[in-house]
Amino acid sequence: MRLLSLTAVVVAIFLVSCNPISERKQPPPSLELLASIDLNLNGEQLANAYCASCHVKPEPEILDKNTWKEKVLPDMRMRIGLYLPEDFGNSLPEDLGVPLGVYSKRALIRREDWDKIQAYYMENAPDSPLPQAKKVIPKVGIPGFQVSQPDFKRTRSNLSIMLKIHPESGDVWLGDRLKMIYILDSKKGFQIKDSISTDVAPVDIRWNDDATFDLLTMGRMDPSNDSLGNISKFWKEGQVWESEELLSKLIRPVNLAVADWNGDGQLDRVVSQFGDHLGKLSIYLSGATTPTEVILRAQPGARRAIAIDFDKDGDLDVLGLMAQAQEGVYVWLNEGGNKYKEKVLLRFQPAFGSSDFRFEDVNKDGYKDIVVVNGDNADLSQVLKNFHGVHVFLNNGENEFEESWFYPMHGASGIEIADFDGDGDQDFFVLSFFPDDSQVPKQNLIYFRQSEKGEFEPFVMSENFEGNWLTMTSGDADLDGDIDLLVGSFEFDDLYKGATKSWRPFIYLENRRN
Fold it and tell me: Can you give the residue ranges of the Cytochrome c domain (predicted)?
């Protein structure tokens, strides 16, 4: 039995080491199984086996030597329970609020095997972060748009975390970290029409047909496992805003999707609970006194979900982007009876930094494609990454996706897709929250205009507005029939030092096509 078990593990390790994820016929061996056997493997083989047991194996060249040595490898080592003398005297994960179970209490790797893995990464990683691939440098000036930055003539911190354009009125709804929502009249120079105080930071909103709206609040914005987020329904009685809590104890939620997933005529909610070490993606079904939760994925990193009949069988499925370790684009196929089957469409390595995605027909072939931006740079490896940017994965007609275009962009964090220039194809706006400030021209907001040939031409603003762009929305703000853009600023200095200057929470890109 021992020989049979060992043979099975060796075969599994061989498959993990040699085959790409799409071709694997069996799951990788568990950490517990690997730890129980004396493996006679080299560093690369051990990395293939151990890393693939949790996520896509990261290649050494994605990070520089120092980042591997000082940040990423020590954390990975402690996650699999191997503590060394140099760790003593430092704060342990549980001392920093990490939930029990995230870091193993017992060593799941032998010291000599870990040393081989570390040597493999140190020998093959570059001395410094690799540069971006050659790319088309953006032209200065965004064609077809008039760019401005409204000044509200008051002192307030620029900490915008939510921007939405009302689809009927064109009013701008601005939410900030200071627990306020401002309703702005875009036809009157963004005059403040109304304001709403919230218990915690507002992050997403869905308007209802009965003059009410559902508001998703994040709880704690900084990385956290706290379940302080909620969804509340708001309505106005006279001059007073009233609210009723619909869902509570959400783990740092960041996105809300609303649709009827079970076909009972009532709107349900999918909440992306990003969290930190804990998190999940869940459907909350309406119809009962307490909504029924159906957990689609009990992992942190849920970033955005979309309601769509992906398999064309007549009911709604869920398409979603997951960040954190098990990064990728997934679909949960509705099988009826509140049961969903998970399918992986795209998988990325754990330092990929998935930030946002859209599902649109980019090349006008009748099939929707996946567009992903990656640039989250707030975790262990806070260095410039040449794989950050905009990725287009084309649909081959069978809901299989292959990358067809990539534009390097440091810190790419959000995307809006629409036919901004009115020529019948899809254009992109992409913002960066973690740009390389040394680049000329500045590339913290890029407009990618698609040509008739399907090529994307990049443009950046000629205006040098002060701001650190975090959130973005598109819509017809001035009700003239074309698509405008608003980009919200979140400035770290305001967060830590308080308000010291005029409140300029966003820039407005007015589409002048009509």
Answer: 38-125
